[in-house]
Specification:
The chain is mainly alpha-helical and 176 residues long. It has helices at 2-33, 45-78, 85-114, 119-160. The chain has one domain.
Length: 176
């Protein structure tokens, strides 16, 4: 039973970490990168955009698959008497965000990687890209919120049941 509990805690912690990475990336884009989009031109967008997207894609693609597997494992571990809606929600949202990325955002990424020379075309592509990325940011935020609920509820249950951390007995000392 202790091994199963350790696996459950490690798995849920990993999934919470992964949702936090996604959410942080989305909010970082929204807060710090999207405001400069109107200033981007065919002369300067490439090095502001393309290498970062390539690195993010290389990092997040395998992470997405591991998150989906982690969600399934969490669902199995939570199935009897657990909070099974959390891994279901996370799995669905990760899947939807991945689907949006592959089917709608990646085509824009490929166009920007190939090179855009028309300023109007660039701004049109960036407008679509930022709208789709804002949608992903909200999906990623919802994933994180589901995991935050999970840990908040588990913590509340532990407090309510009187579970506390073991305390060490104070040793007697003598004054010198």
């Amino acid at each position: 039973m202790k091994v199963k509990a350790a696996i459950a805690v490690f798995n849920a912690s990993f999934l919470f970490w992964a949702t936090a990475i996604y959410m942080g990336t989305g909010w970082s884009l929204w807060l710090f990168s999207f405001p400069i989009v109107p200033k981007l031109s065919p002369d300067n967008y490439y090095y502001v955009f393309v290498p970062q997207v390539a690195y993010a894609t290389a990092f997040f693609t395998p992470l997405t698959w591991v998150m989906m597997a982690s969600s399934v494992l969490m669902l199995v571990l939570e199935w009897k008497g657990g909070i099974k809606w959390v891994p279901i929600v996370v799995l669905l949202l990760v899947g939807i965000a991945g689907w949006v990325t592959v089917n709608f955002i990646f085509p824009y990424n490929r166009q920007m990687t190939a090179g855009i020379h028309d300023p109007a075309q660039l701004q049109d592509i960036l407008a679509h890209w930022t709208r789709l990325s804002t949608l992903r940011m909200w999906l990623w935020t919802a994933e994180w919120a589901a995991m935050m609920y999970y840990f908040g509820r588990r913590t509340y249950q532990a407090i309510q049941s009187g579970v506390t951390a073991p305390t060490a007995k104070a040793s007697k000392t003598t004054a010198v």
